[in-house]
Amino acid sequence: MAAHGLPPSLSRLLFAVKYGSLQSRCCALHSKAQYSTVHNPGEKTFDKILIANRGEIACRVRLLDTLINFEHMNSHKMGIQTVAVHSDVDSSAVHAKMADEAVCVGPAPTSKSYLNMDAIMDAIRATGAQAVHPGYGFLSENKEFAKRLAAEGVAFIGPDTHAIQAMGDKIESKLIAKAAKVNTIPGFDGVVETVEEAVKIAQEIGYPVMIKASAGGGGKGMRISWNDEETREGFRFSSQEAASSFGDDRLLIEKYIDNPRHIEIQVLADKHGNALWLNERECSIQRRNQKVVEEAPSTFLDPETRRLMGEQAVQLAKAVQYSSAGTVEFLVDSKKNFYFLEMNTRLQVEHPITECITGLDLVEQMIRVAKGYQLHHKQEDIPINGWAIESRVYDPYKSFGLPSIGRLSQYQEPLNLSNVRVDSGIQEGSDISIYYDPMISKLVTYGATRAEALAKMEDALDNYVIRGVTHNIPLLREIITHPRFISGDISTNFLPEVYPDGFKGHQLEADKRRELLASAAALYITAQLRSQKVLGGLRVSSAPVECNHWELCVELGDGRHAMEVTKSGDVFTVTIGLKQTSLLCSFQLRVLSKLAAELNSYMPEKVPEDTSSILRSPMPGTIVAVSVKPGDTVAAGQEICVIEAMKMQNSLTAVKQAKVKSVHCKPGETVGEGDLLVELE
């Protein structure tokens, strides 16, 4: 066992400064609520908890001592010591440093570390932890892990194994939901065994259909099929992804509800038969079935629909004797008909927005329930106070991304702003690894109204500094400022409808483009004039000292723009007629003198690679399958190979009919972004 990090008291103080500000403000905003989240010191829970996770959620659980009760400066709110587990590459990770104790449980691959039950059980025994909080992902919904903990008298901070098993199997959970009188999606109530059976069932249900892993979640092992051919392909990929991610390749097929909203209900239940619904979260902004922006409450639900959804969620929780925090997910159509999708038997990624509008600390409630305490609150106590929005900061925007990896060379969270919360597990210098989820942080803003929360989110995104890795902040900003999103006109198809060709970055309007070009030209001239004064005027400048008129060419993207600039005193005048304006520029610009621009046309240009004849890896990952060999003839659209990254399998296809010249990869190999995989003649 290895210990890491600062002394616990100093660690708590430093992280309280980072994480305490929003919740102290939220407490003030929630002062009219009928209850308080202030901990009762007379309630004894656990002396030591092991957190079987990493990254931001491990930090979030560890920060329970300071997160809610920062106003009272009581850093020992629940008096609980924490143990972190980490892989060898995470030995210097924030979650490992901030815990009271940290134990290495294996090498980088998740199967050998964060999913290594034997090593984690050894860590529990070595540290004397009395309970385990699993966070989300990894072992959070693994019934075998919960059983092993129970066998050794260690509390699992989550539901019991019966609920995990019942709700973790999509086939069984659907049958239980039906019996509990919860609305369900029409489909086949059983396991689909073969491709031929899948096609037959899909035809009987009627296209489109959703093929998904029985034991799945998080968008993995899910495919939408519109015809027989897509059903065959979807069956193959879904089963492979399901086996890789969950160790269970069973699939089910159900009717695909076209253009729905994805709205989920947060539930909280204890071991004494009490259960509450804590309102909804709108999660319709998704990419590849993975959530991007969430908000609470939803703009779409009226009080009656909210009540009906909440009551059905509680009915389902009670049907499986659920105890802990959990989430019941629904698809909601345009007429407000809602259908059970799945139940996540764990803390949800987007739980902070529920905490903001209810004032409840869900981690604290999970710990209380695990110790056997009854819920403090009744259903009528649960309010909707204000509005909260969460943006998941991680995906790059190329093709809606294939996850970005790298090192954070510069990192600054917008915690100087009021009503902003950032849940993260990284710092400047941290690596975003190929082995784990590439999420950088969860950015949460709160307001008395939705408009206030959106304005605060826009401000927070503008003040978030991330360098060294590709990130999705430009996309997040475009989403929250888009007229459709602002009006609440959204569905799970929002992103593909608004960006059918993928997000290409912010598109400037004509007047904004001219303003940007004029500002770039003025800044360039300012730099030229300043350079003349360097080293007492000895530095040679391309601009004469007496010059006050310039002809320039400014390149923006692929465009080239000629302009004239004059200077009188401290005032620049640009011939395109726009006044000088201070701009925050996130675009790549190159400013050339008129002569340099003319000479530049004689410079040799790099010839773009003929991508129709070669296939390069679009991301770092592992080759799962290679479907061709030299000499084969492939058709346009034919699969060439399959690459797995972040537990998602991606089929790479030929863009033309051609003969395979050479193959440079084989199954099991790890490849980097841009690596040559296959050449065509």
Provide a descriptive summary of the structure in words.
The protein is 30% helix and 25% strand. The protein has 681 residues and is an alpha+beta fold. The strands form 8 sheets. It has an 8-stranded antiparallel sheet with strand order 13-12-9-10-11-14-19-17, sandwiched between helices. The protein starts with 7 loop residues before the first helix and ends with a strand.
Sum this structure up briefly.
By secondary structure, the protein is of the alpha+beta class.
List the helices and strands and how they pair.
Blueprint: H1 8-29, E1 48-51, H2 55-62, H3 64-67, E2 81-86, H4 94-98, E3 101-104, H5 117-127, E4 131-133, H6 143-151, E5 155-156, H7 161-168, H8 170-179, H9 195-205, E6 209-213, E7 222-225, H10 228-246, E8 251-255, E9 261-269, E10 275-287, E11 290-296, H11 303-319, E12 324-332, E13 338-344, H12 351-358, H13 362-371, E14 387-393, E15 406-407, E16 410-412, E17 420-424, E18 431-432, E19 441-447, H14 450-462, E20 465-467, H15 473-481, H16 483-487, H17 494-498, H18 510-531, E21 549-556, E22 559-568, E23 571-574, E24 589-593, H19 594-600, E25 614-616, E26 621-626, E27 633-634, E28 639-645, E29 648-653, E30 658-663, E31 670-671, E32 676-680
Parallel strand pairs: 1-2, 1-4, 2-3, 4-5
Antiparallel strand pairs: 6-7, 6-8, 9-10, 9-12, 10-11, 11-14, 12-13, 14-19, 15-18, 16-20, 17-19, 21-22, 21-24, 22-23, 25-32, 26-28, 26-31, 27-30, 28-29, 30-32
Helix pairs in contact: 6-7, 9-10, 14-15
